[in-house]
Design a protein that fits this description.
The longest helix is centred in the first third of the chain and has 17 residues. The protein has three helices and no strands. By secondary structure, it is mainly α. It has one domain.
Amino acid sequence: MLKSALISERWFRDLKHNCIYQTEYKNMRELRRVISDYVERYNFRRLHSSLDYETPAEWYFSGINESNAPADKMMKWAA
């Protein structure tokens, strides 16, 4: 439980420091778009060393959850 809380805290800290605090946003729509882009990049494009250099999506959908993968996000499994 503590480990998952630490991971969540780290993720939100990274989001705030790498994304939110960098710019003054014109409105909530712009902020939501920036956060959405950050989450997309984090989950589907950024390689994570702790996941053996896979993205979280690749790791998550690589086995038991493969049938739940969004069709437009299937990368290496489409081949």
